[in-house]
Write a structure and sequence with these properties.
Blueprint lengths: L1 H4 L4 H9 L1 H25 L4 H11 L6 H8 L4 H27 L7 H25 L1 H7 L3 H19 L1 H7 L1 H24 L4 H12 L3 H11 L7 H22 L11
């Protein structure tokens, strides 16, 4: 989050207001489609309540930063991808605890206040610090900026390895009955995230961007929230599995689109 923050300026948020349509649709795909899809798939595969809660949590978190790289590979709009990631990340401070409470409050105990506090600490604080550094320490930021993506990738890999390792026995015992719904959560959300924008007359480039943003969630953050604020151990397992499937689905879509030419059409509406 800090590495995202040092790349942002107030002007970036002004840009959101100039192109609200794509950001609004991306927001709805992230925080309406994905949580509902997670709950529906959990029920369809008859998963235990703790795993359903974990699936809903995965659907209720913000878009991941890895989506920006995959958008670049897919010949999407990287600037739009960064803006959408930023918006869903900041919105997650209140949307993630709200959705978990609304959808899961009657199913499993949910510490909505705790989730909100963690979102403030892990999301908002680093972004604010990063933006402040970008404004008041531009020379320092200029020096560290080239290495921050590498640090971000290494940190993400460590988080992924830790999450999978901690849940390895539960992942193995759950088998395909857990793998399939999580894979489908990312795949279906990505496909719907592409076709809805196309139906709404967004460009091919914008639609690819929204698809990848919808498919690629910040699953490592979901694992942290599950570990800290859900009493049931099983709620963290879907996030650990999602870390892998999110990357695989997003990368697959990006590579496929990489070899499909983009026609530079404009929105008709």
């Amino acid at each position: 989050m800090l590495s995202m923050g040092i790349t942002l300026t107030p002007d970036d948020f002004v840009r959101v207001s100039k192109e609200p349509g794509a950001v609004i649709i991306g927001f709805l795909l992230c925080y309406v489609l994905c949580p509902a899809l997670g709950f529906g798939l959990g029920k369809a595969f008859n998963l235990p309540l703790d795993l359903i809660a974990g699936l809903v949590l995965v659907g209720s978190i913000n878009g991941g930063q890895a989506s920006n790289l995959c958008t670049y590979i897919a010949k999407g709009d990287v600037a739009l991808s960064v803006l959408m990631t930023t918006v869903t990340t900041i919105a997650g401070i209140f949307m993630t605890p709200l959705l978990c409470k609304l959808i899961l409050g009657a199913v499993v105990p949910v510490d909505a206040v705790g989730i909100a506090k963690s979102c403030l600490q892990v999301v908002l604080a680093p972004i604010v610090v990063g933006m402040a550094a970008n404004k008041y320490l531009p020379k320092v930021v200029e020096k560290v900026l080239p290495v921050t993506p590498v640090i971000g990738v290494i940190s993400t890999c460590m988080l992924v390895a830790s999450a999978v390792a901690q849940c390895a026995p539960a992942i193995t015992s759950a088998g395909l009955n857990l793998q399939l719904p999580i894979m489908l959560l990312h795949l279906i959300s990505g496909l719907i995230g592409y076709w809805i924008p196309r139906w709404l007359n967004f460009t091919e480039t914008q639609s690819r961007t929204m698809a990848i943003e919808t498919a690629m969630k910040s699953s490592a953050f979901g694992f942290l929230l599950a570990k800290l604020h859900f009493k049931q151990y099983g709620t963290r397992v879907p996030s650990a599995v999602s870390v892998v499937w999110m990357a695989l689905v997003g990368a697959t879509l990006a590579v496929i689109w990489r070899f499909i030419p983009v026609q530079d059409e404009k929105k008709s509406s």
